[in-house]
Specification:
The protein has eight helices and three strands. It is mainly alpha-helical. Strand 1 and strand 2 form a beta hairpin.
C-alpha cells in the first residue's frame, strides 16, 4: 500500500484574504505532495511498514530501519501534519468553538482569549521551522511546539489542532511577519472539525 495525497477540501482561494491562493497551491500540490512521494520512496525497502497507517508508522519509529528512519520521520510527519492542517481550516471559518472543546479549552487555559495568546506564543517562538499544537498529553490538555515535521504522536501525545509555521506556509503573503500570519489563522479555523478531532483524541 502506498500513501496518497489527500485532496484539498476547498479551492485554493477559499481562505482568502487570510491565506492566499498561490501559497495554498504550492503548499498542497508541491510541499505536501513531496512528503507523500518521499515517504513512499523511503518505504520501498520496507514493504511490511507500508501496510501501516501513517499514525501507526509514526508511533513505531523505533521499528523503522536506521537507514530510512529520518526520511520516514520527516516525510511521514509532513504527510500526517498537513492532512490534519487542511481539514481544520475552511472558507468562512473562525468565530469561537462550542460544546466540549470550548469547555475544555476554558478549563485548561482560563478562556479562549488566554488560549489564543498562549498558542500564538508557542507558534511565534518556535525557532526556525515547525508547528504549534493543542494536544492531550497524559490526559491533560496542553500546548506544545515541535521542530520540523515532528508530531506529538511520536512521543505519546495526541494532537488534534496544529498550525504550520514553516516559512513556506506564509512567506508569500506575510514575508517575515509570522505573528501576522498567526493572527490571520484564527479567521479560517473550522471549529466543527476541531471538535471532531478533539472527541477522537480524547478516547
Amino acid at each position: 500500500m502506498s500513501y496518497t495525497l489527500p485532496p484539498l477540501p476547498y479551492s485554493f482561494d477559499a481562505l482568502e484574504p487570510y491565506i492566499d491562493a498561490k501559497t495554498m497551491e504550492i503548499h498542497h500540490d508541491k510541499h505536501h505532495n513531496a512528503y507523500v512521494t518521499n515517504l513512499n520512496k523511503a518505504l520501498e525497502s520496507a514493504p511490511d511498514l507500508q501496510k501501516l497507517s501513517v499514525e501507526d508508522l509514526l508511533t513505531q519509529l523505533s521499528k523503522v530501519p536506521d537507514a530510512i528512519r529520518t526520511a520516514v520521520r520527516n516525510n511521514g510527519g509532513g504527510h500526517m501534519n498537513h492532512s490534519m492542517f487542511w481539514k481544520i481550516m475552511k472558507k468562512g471559518g473562525g468565530g469561537e468553538p462550542s460544546g466540549d472543546v470550548a469547555s475544555a479549552i476554558s478549563s485548561a487555559f482560563g478562556s479562549l482569549a488566554d488560549f489564543k495568546t498562549k498558542f500564538a506564543a508557542a507558534a511565534t517562538t518556535r525557532f526556525g521551522s515547525g508547528w504549534a499544537w493543542l494536544l492531550f498529553r497524559d490526559g491533560k490538555l496542553v500546548i506544545e511546539s515541535t521542530a520540523n515535521q515532528d508530531n506529538p504522536i511520536m512521543d505519546g501525545g495526541k494532537a488534534f489542532f496544529g498550525l504550520d509555521v514553516w516559512e513556506h506556509a506564509y512567506y508569500l503573503k506575510y514575508q517575515n511577519k509570522r505573528p501576522d500570519y498567526i493572527e490571520a489563522f484564527w479567521n479560517v479555523i473550522n471549529w466543527a472539525q476541531v471538535a471532531e478531532n478533539f472527541a477522537a483524541a480524547k478516547k
